[in-house]
Amino acid sequence: MRKVKVAIIGGTGTEAMLDATEQVRIGTPYGLAPPIFVGEIGEKTVAFLPRHDVRHDVPPHRVNYRANIYALHTMGVKRVIATNAVGAINPEFKLGDLVVPHDLVDFTKLRANTFYDDAPVTHIDVCEPYCPEIRFVLIKAAEKKGPKVFGRAVFACTEGPRLETPAEIQMFERLGCDVVGMTGMPEAMLARELEMCYATVCFVTNMAAGLEKHLTTSELMKAAKKTAPVLQQVLRETALHLPEKRQCLCVHALKEARFQG
Prior knowledge:
The protein has 261 residues and is α/β, with parallel strands linked by helices. The chain has one domain: Rossmann fold (3-Layer(aba) Sandwich). It has helices at 65-74, 132-145, 166-174, 187-193, 217-241, and strands at 6-10, 20-24, 27-28, 31-32, 36-41, 44-50, 79-88, 98-99, 103-107, 149-150, 154-158, 179-181, 197-207. The strands form 2 sheets. Strands 1, 2, 5, 6, 7, 8, 9, 10, 11, 12 and 13 form an 11-stranded mixed β-sheet that branches. Strands 3-4 form a two-stranded antiparallel ribbon. Helix 3 (166-174) links the parallel strand 11 (154-158) and strand 12. The chain starts with 5 loop residues before the first strand and ends in a 20-residue tail after the last helix. The model has no long low-confidence stretch (mean pLDDT 91).
């Protein structure tokens, strides 16, 4: 198995973005990760992990996030670029826009959300939940390749698999959230717990409940497929232009994070 420093975690609309030269299956203490595809983008070796498996048959609340992140860690991955299909809460955001969030709120309930269930008790700092280095490159790539791009947003992650109610969307809006989706957590926190850099680019597939009268999965999938070519260009551009050396705080996430009794 080749060591890979950069990985892309793709969701809806990005399942087949990488022309892979190798496919690996990795068992972890948390279960078997889905097939991971390894290929080249320019001169960089990149891994691609399909979050919902290759046939998109794993719903968001059943994704084995710990196995996915741990498998990438086992491969030597230091940076993770993720994607999320989202609904827009902020009325300035429109269908097809790209969003690179800077913060998040976790509304999930049932997901295994840490690698540290036992000693040593570990509390990671998430004052900056998304890696600023990846965010910077993502924003530049999106501005170059994409339609309208928003470089700051608060992402609300819900449990799913159902879509949100209008009252829930009103609550999220009052809390300062801009977009809503069902993936991304605990993915971002798990990466931080292993001192991996993580950031995501979201693409708006719909206006959230209450801002649209009716939502269907088929409409969301059509929107995702329409955005996929641009999104793939942004991901490739980002992977190519990440700096070789990491100089962010993600590198030292566990330093002084463990309780010393």
